């Protein structure tokens, strides 16, 4: 069982291509916010640009399933077929033990699960993209996914947009500099 501490949980969720990762990286650079990034575990393959234990804990599907059986996750989900993602309890405890607040860059369902488990300690922010077409454009510009994967992500994004109303805040990211500023103000006010 995760021991509750004074730290806060700041959840950023959105469809892939919405800009949530860019916003989270911006907030992590703001030292006065006292944030640390919750590194998710995943069973998917590591991309060339990604670093184990920095971007994700890349673990085998078998090891991921063992963690599920051992109840080691706060939340987990099979986001794409055989691609599991989850938040290990020990990861949140590691950050809280440092006296910091936890910031998540996490899928929509996982973000809502954290909010439901820790309603008073969590600020759940949904990053709203300008449009599905813009999501597709951003995904293509990354040049990291196959055509099949892009179509899968766009289809998933259409479903995820319906969850926006379940979050504390919907942050529209149609102008990145404004979205970063708005995100900073939301987090600063929450952790006071």
Poorly predicted regions: none
Termini separation (Å)? 27 Å
Looking at CATH, the homologous superfamily is: P-loop containing nucleotide triphosphate hydrolases
Shape: globular
Query: The biggest beta sheet, please?
Result: 5 strands, parallel
CATH architecture identity = 3-Layer(aba) Sandwich
Q: Give me the number of helical elements.
A: 7
**Strand line-up across the major sheet:** 2-7-1-8-9
Q: What is the residue-mean pLDDT, rounded to a whole number?
A: 91
Structural class: alpha/beta
Strand portion, in percent? 15-25%
* Count of individual beta strands: 9
Helix content: 40-55%
Question: What integer value in Å does the Rg equal?
Answer: 16 Å
CATH C-level: Alpha Beta
Write down the secondary-structure element order. Answer: EHEEEHEEHEHEHHEH
Number of domains: 1
In the CATH scheme, what's the topology name?
Answer: Rossmann fold
Describe the structure.
This protein has 192 residues and is an alpha/beta fold. It has one domain: P-loop containing nucleotide triphosphate hydrolases (Rossmann fold), CATH 3.40.50.300. 41% of the residues lie in helices and 23% in strands. It has seven helices and nine strands; from the N terminus they run βαβββαββαβαβααβα. The strands form two sheets. Strands 2-7-1-8-9 form a five-stranded parallel beta sheet, with helices on both faces. It has a four-stranded mixed beta sheet with strand order 4-3-6-5.
């Amino acid at each position: 069982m995760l021991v509750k501490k004074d730290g806060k949980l700041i959840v950023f969720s959105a469809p892939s291509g919405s800009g949530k990762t860019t916003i989270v990286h911006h907030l992590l650079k703001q030292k006065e916010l006292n944030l640390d990034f919750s590194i998710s575990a995943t069973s998917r393959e590591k991309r060339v640009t990604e670093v184990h234990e920095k971007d994700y804990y890349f673990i085998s599907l078998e090891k991921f399933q063992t963690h599920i059986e051992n109840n080691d996750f706060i939340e987990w989900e099979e986001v794409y077929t055989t691609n599991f993602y989850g938040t290990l309890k020990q990861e949140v405890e590691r950050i809280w033990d440092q006296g910091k607040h936890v910031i998540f860059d996490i899928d929509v369902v996982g973000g809502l699960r954290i909010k439901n488990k820790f309603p008073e300690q969590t600020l759940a922010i949904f990053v709203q993209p300008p449009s599905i077409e813009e999501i597709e454009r951003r995904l293509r510009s990354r040049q990291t996914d196959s055509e099949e994967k892009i179509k899968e992500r766009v289809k998933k994004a259409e479903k995820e947009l319906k969850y926006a109303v379940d979050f504390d805040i919907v942050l529209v990211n149609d102008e990145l500099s404004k979205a970063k500023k708005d995100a900073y103000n939301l987090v600063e006010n929450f952790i006071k």
